[in-house]
Write a structure and sequence with these properties.
four-stranded parallel sheet; 2 domains; Rossmann fold; single chain; about 15% strand; alpha/beta; 7 strands
Amino acid sequence: MQLQHFFQLNPRIAVAFSGGVDSSYLLYAAKTAGCDVRAYFLKSQFQPRFELDDAESITNSLGVTLFVDDFDILSEPEVISNPPDRCYYCKVKIFSRLWELARKDDYTVLCDGTNADDDESDRPGMRALRELGVLSPLRDCGLAKSDIRHLSKQAGLKTFDKPSYACLATRIPTGTLITAQQLVMIEEAEQALSDMGFSDFRVRLLPPNGAKIQMPQDQWEQATARRAEILAALQPVFKSVVLDLAYR
């Protein structure tokens, strides 16, 4: 199926919007195709502030209405216990809420930005999408991440080269109880590194109170040169800070 054909069959859609590469292109394509489209952003403790800022900026530039809803994901025991399939339980809660919001606005089709590269065997959350009847037009139309970046660049979308970003909960080892304090510590650490100019990195929790920085190898030299600055930013909240030399 071609994406244009999907929009012809579904001229009125709600989009689960994150402000990332995939959902931004989906929103742009739907708007360009003449769809009645609305974006929904669920703001939980798993997302840093910059994601909402990006979502607002992108929807404003596209002229698409953005509905933002606060969602207390830390009130969900199955999620904060952090089992191996945490993402499944998280997606069930989040997309159930998104369905409520969309249906309240009389939207009967809810889409997300899953692409053709996403492997269900490695992403428990995709099972939740299937069970809840959420459509993934980019995936169904065979569009891989590289295709979406190329099309986004052609369309003049600033997200075309935006690094992929996973929620803050992925920084906490499986089986470790997720707390609000941990999430704030990780978000502040990652913001500090971003402010220093680092990109495409992760700050992962090393229980009970350590941090492991993962960044591309071409930034290691810069990290070493700025060691004191990094420690000054992170050690007030993390007892130990290490650089993952096995990360590529």
